[in-house]
Design brief:
The chain has 153 residues and is mainly alpha-helical. It has three domains: 30 residues, no CATH class; 51 residues, no CATH class; 55 residues, no CATH class. Helices cover 58% and strands 4% of the residues. The chain has nine helices and two strands, in the order ααααβαβαααα. Strands 1-2 form a two-stranded parallel ribbon. Helix 1 crosses helix 2 and helix 6 packs parallel to helix 9. The longest helix is centred in the N-terminal third of the chain and has 14 residues. The chain is globular. It starts with a helix and ends with a helix. The mean pLDDT is 90.
Length: 153
């Protein structure tokens, strides 16, 4: 989680302090109670063939948590040759969000609206939130979900 906090801080070029990023991470953990994986540490040393050995913990946690995919836009650091024998594959954040939209459109639309509404520092409109999602790489998701907000569905 510390890596996630640092990543948020760096990705926002310091606009989001590490303390505020930590608050976001805690909120994500609270919202998704079953998302935290424990007991992955003994598996980490068995993960070999990673371009960046510092990413082995991600694969170990995915295996321990019985995940089928690692959601990342950094696919080059998670080669299929390592993941496939473990029953894993990568999924881009855009593809992951599109999958959720296709499976549960009403819930996805509600989540986007709720997330935009909850953003208070600074406040953001749904349109602004969608623009930020698109800028972060979720262009396909935004292209498919935007009509729900434009037509009032």
């Amino acid at each position: 989680m510390d890596e996630t906090v640092r990543g948020i801080h760096l990705a926002t070029k310091g606009r989001v302090s590490e303390e505020r990023a930590r608050t976001r991470v805690y909120a994500m953990n609270d919202a998704f109670e079953d998302a935290r994986v424990e007991g992955w540490e003994p598996l980490e040393s068995a993960i070999t063939g990673m371009p960046d050995p510092d990413d082995r913990h991600v694969v170990a946690a995915a295996v321990r948590g019985h995940a089928s995919a690692i959601v990342t836009d950094n696919t080059k650091d998670f080669p299929e040759t390592v993941l496939e024998p473990l029953g894993l594959h990568t999924r881009s954040s855009d593809r992951f969000l599109l999958d959720l939209l296709h499976r549960h459109p009403a819930r996805a639309v509600a989540c986007v609206a709720q997330t935009a509404d909850k953003r208070g520092h600074p406040p953001v409109t749904t349109e602004g939130f969608l623009e930020a999602l698109s800028a972060s790489g979720a262009k396909g998701f935004v292209r498919e979900i935007a009509p729900y907000f434009e037509s009032g569905n």
